């Protein structure tokens, strides 16, 4: 039994390292563009088919984490190419936010509603921002979304089944001090702190 568990852990690590290597090569070669991020999404969705290595039993929402748990799978020594598995329960949601780095989300199981927003103001007033929703997509098994650094989205887990996604960021969320969380009704934003409980 112990040998089999170790073997799966080793396989998972090997697959993670291979995926990160491929994604690093894509970004290094072609730069951060919507087209490159689509290639990154395809590579993540390929890895997401390995349900034996990535599922919500292996990456559950942990006790004490409320409705979501964030697992760090990999990052480099500059805190770049940060790769996470995010596990959610029904009711988990984020406010509209940007990332200040590129980001790709790829579905493994369950469903997560992603809403996308457009900024309407010119960004000249500190703490003030007018945004409006213009699009939404469901992220589930076989689908994903891509975000350029300035793109704004919110996430909403509306289903009662466990939901697990890959989140891949150009830089670790612990090293993105200027991510903004927007209050659409008030027309304001605040800086958005990282989840304080990242399982490593
Ligand atoms: Fe996000």
How are the SSEs placed, and which strands pair?
Blueprint: H1 2-30, H2 34-48, E1 68-74, E2 80-88, E3 103-109, E4 111-119, E5 131-140, E6 144-147, E7 152-156, E8 163-171, E9 180-183, E10 188-191, E11 198-199
Parallel strand pairs: 1-11
Antiparallel strand pairs: 1-2, 2-8, 3-6, 3-8, 4-5, 4-7, 9-10
How would you describe what is shown here?
The protein is globular, with a radius of gyration of 17 Å. It has 2 helices and 11 strands; from the N terminus they run H-H-E-E-E-E-E-E-E-E-E-E-E. It has one domain (2-199): Sandwich (Jelly Rolls). The protein has helices spanning 2-30, 34-48, and strands at 68-74, 80-88, 103-109, 111-119, 131-140, 144-147, 152-156, 163-171, 180-183, 188-191, 198-199. With 200 residues, the protein is an alpha+beta fold. The longest helix has 29 residues, at 2-30.
N→C terminal distance:
24 Å
CATH superfamily, please?
Jelly Rolls
Q: Report the major sheet.
A: 6 strands, mixed
Given helix and strand content, the structural type is alpha+beta
The ordered H/E elements are HHEEEEEEEEEEE
Please give the order of strands in the largest beta sheet.
6-3-8-2-1-11
The ligands bound in this entry are: fe (ii) ion
CATH topology: Jelly Rolls
The average pLDDT is 95
Task: Report the uncertain regions.
Answer: none
What is the CATH C level class, in words?
Mainly Beta
Radius of gyration of CA atoms, rounded to a whole number: 17 Å
In percent terms, what proportion of residues is strand?
35-45%
Shape: globular
Please give the domain count: 1
Helical proportion, percent range: 10-25%
Number of helices: 2
What CATH architecture do you see?
A: Sandwich
């Amino acid at each position: 039994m112990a040998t089999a568990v170790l073997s799966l852990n080793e396989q998972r690590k090997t697959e993670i390292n291979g995926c990160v290597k491929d994604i690093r090569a894509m970004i290094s070669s072609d730069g951060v563009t919507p087209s490159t991020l689509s290639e990154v999404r395809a590579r993540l969705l390929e890895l997401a088919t390995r349900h034996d290595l990535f599922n919500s039993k292996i990456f559950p929402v942990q006790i004490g984490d409320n409705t979501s748990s964030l697992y760090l799978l990999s990052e480099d020594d500059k805190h770049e190419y940060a790769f996470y598995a995010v596990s959610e329960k029904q009711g988990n949601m984020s406010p509209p936010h940007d990332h200040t780095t590129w980001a790709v989300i790829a579905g493994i199981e369950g469903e997560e509603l992603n809403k996308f927003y457009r900024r309407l103001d010119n960004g000249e007033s500190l703490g003030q921002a007018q945004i409006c929703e213009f699009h939404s997509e469901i992220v589930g098994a076989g689908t994903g979304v891509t975000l350029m650094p300035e793109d704004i989205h919110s996430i909403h887990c509306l289903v009662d089944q466990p939901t697990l996604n890959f989140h891949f960021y150009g830089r670790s969320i612990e090293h993105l001090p200027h991510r903004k969380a927007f209050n659409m009704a008030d027309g304001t934003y605040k800086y958005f702190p990282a989840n304080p409980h990242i399982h490593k």
